[in-house]
Every structure is written in C-alpha cells, then in structure tokens.
Design a protein that fits this description.
With 229 residues, the chain is an alpha/beta fold. The chain contains six helices and eleven strands. Strands 1-2-4-3 form a four-stranded mixed β-sheet. The chain has a four-stranded mixed β-sheet with strand order 5-6-8-7, with helices on one face. Helix 3 crosses helix 4. 20% of the residues are buried.
Length: 229
C-alpha cells in the first residue's frame, strides 16, 4: 500500500480494479484513499485536496462522538427505538428482558447487574427487532431489485451501516439500525442488494438506487449525520 503526503497529512492509498476514487475516515480519525490501479499520484493528491473540508468535518464529528460518555443503562437515560425517543426504566427482577411500555423502555435485570450486562440485554433487544424486520424487507425488496441474498447477518459494526459479499451473496446489517427510523434500514438493505448487481459505487449503481429506492439521497443524508457506533 502506497502513502501520499497531502497538506501535511500522511494518507495510505490502496489501488484496486475500480473506476472511481474513494476516501474513508475511520473511527480513529485515520484517512484512507482507494483509487483505480492506473491513477497517478498527482490525481490522487488533487482528489484528496478537493475533499479536505469534508475530511476535517468528519474528523471533528468523530472526535465529538468519541468524547461522549458511554451509556450506563440506568433509569432516566434516553434510548432510541426505530427513531422514536424513549426513557429507559430499569427494574429489578429475577426474569431478565426488555419491553416497550408507553413512553418507556423497561429493562428487567437482577439487582446488582453490571453496565456490561445491561448493555448486552439492550443489544439483544435491538437484535430481536431487526430479526423481525429484516426477512420481510429482504423478500419484498429482493423482488424489486431482482436479486436475492443467499444469507444475511446482523453485526455491531463501528464504521459501516452495512456490507455485501457479492461472491457469497451475503448481506450484513448494522445492529444500530434498530435505533434509527425504519427507512434507514430499508435504504441500507436496498443499497447492499444493489451491490449484487453492481459491486462498485459507479453511475450504474446509483442508477439502480434511483430505480429501486428513489428517496435514497434524503435517507443517506440522514445517515451521514450519524455515527455507526
């Protein structure tokens, strides 16, 4: 992997058999460029320079998110379910579970449970929501796209909302999508299904998105304002 110095920043560059250049800012603030095999260094530097303001904005956003305190999952904290805001209420019970009651999400755990255990329970709650929502969406949008995933997974990803292994026809979706409005899950799912038809983010891919999910730009803008963690 090559490295280029752009504006005093050392940026790793990976070249692949793709048509367009891409920049990714990782959760730790690191920047990486993926470029076509024959792209000259001068063109890559110019591309990075043109995206300098965007890179800085992403770094500031990630730094701000990293400064936030980790939730303790105690009564009174706010939690999100399909984009709606709820107040968390922790009750002590021999039977563990999570349920929605009115304006509250009730987390039932044994007395003395740790924050890690409460976090595990909430993750299980979100996973159950996605397990119920994903299959019918895959079925309906599989018909729309004309391509079906052979398998799907839910993962707690830090920097991506979804991924697609086109060779194995496997789709992965971020656990945190259960916190966001349902259209966010729909967009990510259609996005990954479209990769079964076109692996790259080229004009053909975005034309597919226009056809299969016309509102994708508005939903993507909403997702870009959030972090996968």
């Amino acid at each position: 992997m090559n490295r280029l110095n752009v504006g005093g920043v050392d940026i790793p560059v990976e070249k692949k058999r793709i048509k367009n250049m891409y920049i990714r800012v990782a959760a730790d603030g690191g920047v990486k460029i993926t470029a076509p095999l024959r792209a000259p260094d001068e063109a890559i530097r110019a591309f990075a320079a043109s995206r300098a303001a965007w890179i800085e904005k992403q770094k500031q956003r990630l730094a701000a998110q990293g400064a936030r305190a980790e939730p303790l999952y105690e009564s009174g904290e706010e939690c999100l379910v399909w984009g709606a805001r709820y107040r968390l209420f922790v009750e002590h019970s021999l039977k563990s579970g999570v349920r929605v009651e009115g304006e509250n999400v009730v987390l039932s755990v044994p007395e003395g449970s740790s924050a890690a255990r409460r976090a595990e329970m909430m993750d299980g709650f979100y996973r159950a929501l996605l397990n119920g929502a994903i299959p019918p969406l895959l079925e309906s949008y599989g018909r729309v796209v004309g391509a079906r995933a052979a398998s799907w997974r839910i993962r707690d990803m830090k920097t991506r909302w979804g991924s697609c292994n086109a060779r194995e026809r496997r789709v992965c979706l971020n656990l945190r999508l259960a916190k966001l409005p349902p259209e966010c899950l729909e967009y990510v799912l259609v996005h990954e299904l479209a990769h079964l038809l076109e692996r790259g983010h080229n004009h053909r891919f975005w034309a597919y998105m226009d056809r299969f999910y016309p509102n994708w730009r508005a939903v993507r803008a909403r997702l870009n304002g959030r972090a996968a963690d």
